UniProtKB/TrEMBL annotation:
Record lineage: Bacteria, Bacillati, Actinomycetota, Actinomycetes, Streptosporangiales
Membrane topology according to the record: Multi-pass membrane protein
GO cellular component terms, semicolon-separated: plasma membrane
Disordered, as annotated region: 1-38
UniProt entry keywords in alphabetical sequence: Cell membrane, Membrane, Transmembrane, Transmembrane helix
Membrane recorded as keyword: yes
Record field: transmembrane: 45-65, 77-106, 155-180, 186-205, 238-259, 271-296, 337-356
InterPro entries, alphabetized: DUF318 (IPR005524), UPF0718 (IPR052923)
Organism: Streptomonospora salina
Record's protein name: Uncharacterized membrane protein YraQ (UPF0718 family)
UniProt superkingdom: Bacteria
Predominant location: membrane
Length: 357
């Protein structure tokens, strides 16, 4: 058997793995040394000092800035940020729990029996399934990730992601309550949202590529129990998606406060421009789909089609949803999926709004 060289390898032969694992020079297949990967004494001490300085900085900032952060703009920003976060968090937890349950307890064969094998036929079936499950866009992202984990075609899972927060019974009832005496608005929202979701799914089934979408990885070994798989998947997805939800809420609150409402109202009299303005407004405000109808009906200076755009675009494309999608499926996916979804939502809004409103 040839002897393995004992001297140090030349710099040109050093691998990336060697640079990431200093001190690891055992044969392949054996466990690393007991101290490999553990913090050394000085490094651990530096971490403690960094944490202590960070805590001290927080205390000093609270003492110096607590009396200054009472301006009207800051209070409005804090209110919007808190409202978005608290409104979305229960649905995010629900979606994460449902996604973990789909991953752990529902066998992959179930989806193969229920969903058509042909992706083009599975897309409208997934859109119809979205009409049954109550939830907002925050819940639909982890659920779609769970469906992809179980072998559902990405085009069908993405159709469900778009349809579920826009056409489920809770949203339609809320829309009927907000637009009392206007059943055409409920029908228009259902038709425009469902049509946009199915159109995006069919386009993705025809033109989408697997390397554009980063599928969620499994977090447990093959021998893990169902409850262990459920717990690990839920904890990981909750911490991961929750962080991106906070980032999205921060961005939405900042833009919400920075853009004067008077600028928006001045454009309400322009038919096409008003639709685009309220679509952009929906992206920025990031309101949960269960509540957006009540905001839309309050925008009395805008046309019915513009209000429809607000309710169709918001559940499919908003700041916090973009952040959640980027954290779950990757930013390569977002760069392609978001423009496609926005275009489909606007085209569907103009078509259905022109026919029904």
């Amino acid at each position: 058997m040839p002897q393995r060289p004992t001297g140090p390898a030349p710099p040109a032969q050093a691998s990336l793995g060697d640079s990431l694992a200093p001190g690891w020079d055992e044969p392949d297949g054996e466990l690393p040394p007991p101290d490999w990967g553990r913090s050394r004494g000085p490094r651990r001490l530096a971490t403690v000092w960094m944490f202590a300085l960070f805590t001290l900085a927080l205390a000093a900032g609270n003492a110096w800035l607590s009396d200054r952060l009472i301006g009207e703009a800051f209070l409005a920003w804090a209110t919007v940020f808190t409202a978005i976060s608290l409104q979305a968090l229960p649905f995010l937890v629900f979606g994460v729990a449902l996604s973990a349950a789909l991953t752990a307890f529902v066998p992959a064969s179930f989806y193969r029996r229920v969903m058509p094998a042909n992706p083009f036929a599975a897309v409208p079936a997934a859109g119809t399934a979205g009409m049954v499950l109550p939830g907002c866009e925050c819940a639909s992202v982890p659920v779609a990730g769970g469906l992809i984990k179980r072998g559902v075609a990405p085009a069908a899972a993405l159709t469900f992601l778009l349809a579920a927060p826009a056409v489920n019974p809770v949203v339609l009832v809320a829309t009927a309550v907000a637009f009392a005496g206007q059943p055409e608005m409920v029908l228009a929202r259902l038709a425009a949202s469902f049509g946009a979701a199915v159109a995006v799914g069919w386009v993705w089934a025809r033109m989408g590529r697997t390397d554009w979408l980063r599928p969620p990885r499994a977090l447990h070994g093959p021998g893990a129990s169902r409850w262990q798989a459920f717990r690990e998947s839920m904890l990981h997805d909750l911490m991961h998606a929750g962080g991106f939800l906070v980032l999205g809420a921060l961005a939405a609150a900042t833009v919400n406060v920075a853009v004067p409402r008077a600028w928006v109202s001045a454009l309400a009299d322009m038919p096409v421009v008003s639709v685009l303005v309220l679509a952009l407004f929906a992206v920025v405000l990031s309101i949960c789909s269960e509540a957006d109808a009540f905001v839309a009906v309050s925008l009395t200076e805008f046309s019915p089609t513009a209000k429809l755009a607000f309710m169709v675009v918001g559940p499919m494309v908003d700041i916090k949803l973009i952040a959640l999608q980027g954290g779950t499926f990757g930013w390569t996916f977002v760069r392609r999926f978001v423009p496609l979804t926005l275009a489909a939502a606007l085209v569907s809004t103009f078509l259905i709004g022109g026919l029904l409103l």
